Amino acid sequence: MGTATAGISVASPATGTLPEQDPRVRDLKVERSENNLFVSMQLDLSELTLKSNREITYLPVLTFGERHLELPRVIVAGRNRYIQNLRHGDLSHGARLCRPGKVIDYSALIPYEQWMETATLSLFEDECGCGFNVVSHDRKDLAVLDFTPKVFKPAYAFVTPVAELVKTREARGSAYIDFPVNRTEIRPDYRRNPEELQKIRHTIDVLRSDADTRIVSVSIEGFASPEGPYANNERLAKGRTEALLGYVRGLYTFDASIMKSSWVAEDWAGLRRYVQSSDIAQKADILSILDMENLTPDAREWKLKSAYPEQYRFLLENVYPGLRHSDYAVEYIIRSYTNVEEIKAVMKSAPQKLSLHEMNVVAQSLEPGSDEYCEVFEVAVRMYPDDPVANLNAANIALGRDELERAAGYLAKAGNTPEATYARGIYAAKGGDYVEAVRLFDDASKAGVRQAAEAVAQLRELGLIE
């Protein structure tokens, strides 16, 4: 296992100021492996002189809060004290006995404990007189250790969404209205019509009852299934769509200008989507027939029916009923919100009413990185799952939490802005692909993302790149 050298900040833990340099201490190094701490230094006592019965003890000590650990001491003794120490042999374990006037190479190896991560290394000096009483005491702080894990912590480039001048939204749905065979009039109580018509009414009623919204358009597009003559299907699609539009118009007092309708005589596109996603026999051949747009609709239907009668009967009974549908869309405008507290309240009760810019207003009022701050961007991407800005900002939140799998999903829909390139560089770096990370950071930097150069410098300082 390799060693890690402490980033030594020469600062007093009490005041945060630089202590006086101790001229006696040179080449101080503090290194750690997984289980041990190694301290080495030169203690220059070449100018020290002592009376015969005097001695000085130099004691390195590690301290952090209430925790402390004494390292092996160095005892420098005058002539008589030196001899007495040798005779009695009562030196503490690991202590080193020396004469003054020398340069001492000091080293100590001790078991590493977590509290030492940011401990202070100090040198205590006690001078003893001949009566074994301490005549002076001194302490010098040599270093504040820093063995906190060195990890890549880039700055994130969030993007401010563009404010919407008008917040236009659309509520969409499909209704499957039952009509008598070959008829176009609406019968509200016929078969499943009560439930299907209720879907349309509910969509409109919810928006009409909301004081924050204003309906600006109601449109219905009707579809018929592609069996039988095309001309008759066109008549049915047009007549049934107009009947449904008239039914809705009769329920409300909308201006005629906002009511719109259109129709598709035969829903070949819907039929193709079903076949494409199915495991029906002869699937490829059936799809090739459906794609024969050079044929008239009636000729295409005959070819399908005659070539694959069994599959045609299955489609007619199980799929064609679902192709007779009315798609409705209600377009509406939501008022804007500017007050932060009001936006917070709306975010809790009806976040779909907010624009990305309004959500960003809330984010700017919160502490970056806090749970509440992160939640805003997660709500934003839930409300706007395909928006590049929402996905980019959500990716930044996920990257900050080292949730790389989630970040990858967001980055796939984050677009190709310089900020998105930078975020992909962070993703690469956190995944260990530093070559790709540097490439992306360089591209982002050239495009004006200032954080990119700082990210490269950080990778270099961590020794992850040259």
Automatic annotation (TrEMBL):
Entries under InterPro entries matching the protein: DUF3868, OmpA-like_sf, TPR-like_helical_dom_sf
Pinpoint the DUF3868 domain residues. 29-87
What Pfam families does the record point to? DUF3868 (PF12984)
Q: List the residue ranges of the region (Disordered).
A: 1-22
What is this protein identified as? DUF3868 domain-containing protein
Specify the species. Bacteroides caecimuris
